[in-house]
């Protein structure tokens, strides 16, 4: 299985959020080629500002593994994590983060700049299916403005 495949799975989660009227962001946590956690934004549905895709996927992965750390796992997420999610990812000690598109407005880099908020061993990559991810978000907000 490739990064492209798992990002496609995260995009599927984002589409679930879109279908529910949520900001279309999706995430999956993968370890040893197996998806161990899935999530999509559920902020409106749960009336919970912490119900981001990353948080839900991490919680599912912790429950699946019966562990509070994920050093051998990869998070695939359709948009750059916010500072809150970056904090949770730091504490999870996740091994790798792959996000599709940058979030200039709410992404962690807006606050941290060039400093990484993640665990020192965490590797970060971006750009896989980024345009597709951005188009989902842009379409969501364009429809809201009508």
From TrEMBL:
Q: Gene3D superfamilies this protein is in?
A: Cytidine Deaminase, domain 2
Q: Which reaction does it catalyse?
A: adenosine(34) in tRNA + H2O + H(+) = inosine(34) in tRNA + NH4(+)
Transmembrane stretches, start-end = none
Give the matching Pfam families. Answer: dCMP_cyt_deam_1 (PF00383)
User: From the UniProt record, which GO molecular function terms apply?
Assistant: tRNA-specific adenosine-34 deaminase activity; zinc ion binding
Record's cofactor remark: Binds 1 zinc ion per subunit.
Q: Tell me the superkingdom of the source.
A: Bacteria
Q: Provide the binding site for Zn(2+).
A: 52, 82, 85
GO terms under biological process = tRNA wobble adenosine to inosine editing
Cofactors demanded by this protein: Zn(2+)
Q: Which residues form the active site?
A: 54
Per its UniProt record, what InterPro entries does this chain match? APOBEC/CMP_deaminase_Zn-bd, CMP_dCMP_dom, Cytidine_deaminase-like, tRNA_aden_deaminase
Cite the EC number.
3.5.4.33
PROSITE patterns assigned? CYT_DCMP_DEAMINASES_1, CYT_DCMP_DEAMINASES_2
Residue ranges occupied by any CMP/dCMP-type deaminase domain in the UniProt entry = 1-111
Main role?
Catalyzes the deamination of adenosine to inosine at the wobble position 34 of tRNA(Arg2).
Protein name, per record? tRNA-specific adenosine deaminase
Species of origin: Chitinophaga lutea
Q: What is the lineage of its organism?
A: Bacteria, Pseudomonadati, Bacteroidota, Chitinophagia, Chitinophagales
Quote the gene name from the UniProt entry: tadA
């Amino acid at each position: 299985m490739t990064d492209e495949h798992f990002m496609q799975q995260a995009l599927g989660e984002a589409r679930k959020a879109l279908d529910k009227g949520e900001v279309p962001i999706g995430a999956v946590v993968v370890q040893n080629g197996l998806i161990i956690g899935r999530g999509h934004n559920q902020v409106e549905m749960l009336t919970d500002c912490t119900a981001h895709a990353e948080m839900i996927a991490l919680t599912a992965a912790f429950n699946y593994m019966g562990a509070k750390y994920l050093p051998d796992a990869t998070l695939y997420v359709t948009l750059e994590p916010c500072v809150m999610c970056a904090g949770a990812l730091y504490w999870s000690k996740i091994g790798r983060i792959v996000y599709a598109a940058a979030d200039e407005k709410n992404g962690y880099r807006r606050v941290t700049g060039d400093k990484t908020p993640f665990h020192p061993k965490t590797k970060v990559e971006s750009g896989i299916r980024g345009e597709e991810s951005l188009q989902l978000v842009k379409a969501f907000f364009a429809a809201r403005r009508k």
